[in-house]
Specification:
22% helix, elongated, 389 residues, alpha+beta, single chain
Amino acid sequence: MKKFVFTLALAAVCFNATAQSSSETSSKSSTLKSLSVPVSPAFSLTDITPTLVQNPTTPKSFALGIVQSVANGGSYFPDNFSAQFAPVWWVDPEGISIYSYLGLTRPESGKVLDDTRQNIFSGLKFTSLSVGFINKDLIHDNIEKSQKIFSIGAHTTLLRAYHKEHTKALNNAINSWHEHALEDISSNQDLIDAISRLNASDKNYQDQINALTEKMRIKLSAPDLKTINDLIIQKPVFAWDVSVATAGYGISSDAIKIGRSGVWTGLSLNLKLDKKATNYFSINALGRYLYDRYQVNDENVIGKAHNLDAGGNLGFELNRLNIAVESLYRFTNGVSDSKNRTVGIISVKVSDNIFINGTFGKDFSGPNKLISLFGINWGFGKEKVALPE
């Protein structure tokens, strides 16, 4: 019981976790920071995103996306929106195990981790679902009229692998936290005893707990918790992801038909540029199949088409700034049609939950089709990882 009470205080002091007296799990959870707000597959399907080649990351529990073209003729008010959520954070909102989060072998109850084995498929649990509401002309005929588009999509990371040294460092940090937490318990024994004597039915119970925890001095285990959080948010060395999406077009005032469907996969390699792992050089590759029901051919006839996009991007992540160059080449019905998309991308992390993206370059639609997009991704929710006992 005393360990439980102290763990509650430790999480509150070091990670601002919300203590719930009726739930042991929530009191042992820490809120993760700096999780990604990935681009929605429902957006990527329609080429409305600043980047089509993603770097797989652990998503927030819920995210909103807004993208607007700033080309001539674009409206001043955004008219492209997406919503994305990862069900795992909703099924277990109080926090999944820190071992499960990164795919580490979970030790037996009462013991600490004594090896560095990792499950490379642990990213599957963070599969996300998305919807998009888009206003764009995806039928590139002579009629310049946007369609009202509703799209749905899903994304998952099939495989992610961390460097052996990363897993070893995390193992050591968890074990160190466990050892130092016991020492901190001993040094705060009087305050722990005082908390255990409080009456949970008292209307001022939470205020009394807060007053006592403010007096606690967490000297040894707090640095370990910061180390654990810093290791958790590091990027894997290698990742493989898959996405799928489909979109319905409002082709008239009373008719909706499936206009485009696609499936794509990406490979990512992240190379650390510093020991703190805040700066990376990333290499990302993409292969994408698109079925387009309303694509205009060289004879200016609208018909069905099977497109295959292949390419990738190279970029630097420098703390809060991402800079990348992306190029994709398109093959239509098995034949190269000399259409490619080449863009420059800038992304700025304004806060832990807000990312601003911009891109400028040439789209698939033709040699003179310049694109200029501006987007905001906004994440919501408090994602928690359950700490070891």
